[in-house]
Design goal:
The protein is elongated and about 80 Å long. It has about 325 residues and is mainly alpha-helical. α1 links the parallel β1 and β2. The strands form two sheets. The protein has a three-stranded parallel sheet. The chain has a two-stranded parallel ribbon with strand order 4-5. The protein starts with a strand and ends in a 7-residue tail after the last helix. The protein contains 14 helices and five strands. Bound molecules: tryptophan (TRP). Tryptophan (TRP) binds next to β1 and α8.
Length: about 325
C-alpha cells in the first residue's frame, strides 16, 4: 500500500482572504482534499504573523477565526483537510530552535523574500530577530509535518529552498530524519487588483474579499480601473490588461457573452458602466454560496472552534512523532 503524500499549506492570519487567494490557492486546496493519495494540512501561522505584528496580538487572534470562516466557506472540509493553529503546537517552536543551528546568518540574509520585506517595512538594521528568522520557523512547520509537497506562490519559493537546505544539513549530520519538501507552484497567473496593479493584496488596498457584502462588491467593481485611454463610452476601448475583462474571463463561464462584450468594447459600443454592472452580478453570483456557507458557520462558532481544536490536536500528534525522531537524532532524548 502506498503511503499518502503530505501537503502543507498555510496563511498568516492578518486579514480577510480575497479573490486573489481564491484563484491562486484556495480553489486548489479544495480540489486537493479530494485526492486519495494526498493528506492535506492547513496551518494558520499565527506565530509567524506575530513576527511583524507583535504590537497587535488582538488583530492576529481575531483573524484566526475569520480565516477559518474563509476556509470553511469556500469548501475546505474539516473531514478531509486538517486545520491547525501554529501557536498551539509548542513542538514547532522547539523544532525551530534545533533548525537554527543548520543555517547561517548569511544564508538568511540572502533570502530574497525576507530581504524585500525588510526593505518594504523600512526596518533597516532594526529587524526584529523573530522576523529575520521566520524562514527557519517556516522550515520547522514544513519539516515538523514531514510535508512532501508545499503549494505556494512564487514569493514563497525561497522558503522551500531554504527548508531543503536545512533538511540536507540535518540529515547529513544526524542521519536520515526529514524528507525533502517540494514546492507545488500555482499554475494560474496571479489576479490583479481592482486598481489594475499586478497583484491583489490587502496592503495595496485593492481587494475584493470573500466576506464582502454584495453592496460592497458592487461599489468596488464600479470603482474599478479600466482603460485609461477611453474617455467616452463611444471611444474604442482596450480589453487587454483591463481588470474588468480579466475578472470576467476568470469568473464567468459564458465565453460567448464575454467575447460579445469584448467586441463591443473595442468598437466603442458598450460603456464601462454596463460591463461593470454585469461583472458585479457575476462576482456576486460566485460569492453568494460562499456567503451562505459562512453565515451557517457564523451561527455556530462553537462548531468552528471545535474544528480548530480537533485539527490542532491531530496536527500536534504528527509533529510530536517527528520531534521524537529529532530528539533521538540530536541526542536530547535523555529520559527515553
Ligand atoms: N509564509 C506563508 C505566507 O505568508 C505562510 C506560511 C507559514 C506557510 N508557514 C507555512 C506556508 C508553511 C506554507 C507552509 O503565505
Amino acid at each position: 500500500m502506498s503511503k499518502k503524500k503530505r501537503i502543507l499549506t498555510g496563511d498568516r492570519p492578518t486579514g480577510p482572504l480575497h479573490l486573489g487567494h481564491y484563484v491562486g490557492s484556495l480553489k486548489n486546496r479544495v480540489l486537493l482534499q479530494d485526492k486519495d493519495d494526498y493528506e492535506q494540512f492547513i496551518l494558520i501561522a499565527d506565530i509567524q504573523a506575530l513576527t511583524d505584528n507583535y504590537d497587535n496580538p488582538q488583530k492576529i487572534k481575531d483573524n484566526i477565526l475569520k480565516l477559518t470562516l474563509d476556509y470553511l466557506s469556500v469548501g475546505i472540509n474539516p473531514g478531509k483537510s486538517t486545520i491547525i493553529i501554529q501557536s498551539q503546537i509548542p513542538e514547532l517552536a522547539e523544532l525551530t530552535i534545533y533548525l537554527m543551528n543548520m543555517i547561517t546568518v548569511a544564508q538568511l540574509e540572502r533570502n530574497p523574500t525576507v530581504k524585500n520585506e525588510i526593505r518594504q517595512k523600512g526596518y533597516r538594521e532594526n529587524v526584529p530577530v523573530g522576523f529575520f528568522v521566520y524562514p527557519i520557523s517556516q522550515a520547522a512547520d514544513i519539516l515538523g509535518f514531514q510535508a512532501n509537497l508545499v503549494p505556494v506562490g512564487e514569493d514563497q519559493l525561497p522558503m522551500i529552498e531554504q527548508s531543503r537546505e536545512i533538511v540536507r544539513r540535518f540529515n547529513s549530520l544526524y542521519g536520515q530524519t526529514f524528507v525533502e519538501p517540494k514546492e507545488m507552484l500555482s499554475e494560474v497567473p496571479r489576479l490583479c487588483g481592482i486598481d489594475g496593479k499586478e497583484k491583489m493584496s490587502k496592503s495595496l488596498n485593492n481587494t475584493i474579499n470573500l466576506s464582502d457584502s454584495s453592496d460592497v462588491v458592487y461599489e468596488k467593481v464600479m470603482k474599478m480601473y479600466t482603460d485609461p485611454t477611453r474617455v467616452r463610452a463611444t471611444d474604442p476601448g482596450h480589453t487587454e490588461n483591463n481588470p474588468v475583462f480579466i475578472y470576467l474571463n476568470v469568473f464567468h463561464d459564458d465565453k460567448r457573452e464575454i467575447k460579445d462584450f469584448e467586441d463591443k468594447y473595442r468598437l466603442g459600443k458598450v460603456g464601462d458602466i454596463e460591463v461593470k454592472k454585469r461583472l458585479a452580478e457575476i462576482l456576486n453570483n460566485f460569492l453568494e454560496p460562499i456567503r451562505q456557507k459562512r453565515e451557517e458557520y457564523e451561527k455556530n462558532i462553537p462548531l468552528v472552534n471545535s474544528i480548530l481544536k480537533e485539527g490542532t490536536e491531530r496536527g500536534r500528534e504528527v509533529v510530536q512523532q517527528t520531534m521524537s525522531l529529532v530528539r533521538k537524532a540530536v541526542k536530547t532524548d535523555y529520559f527515553g
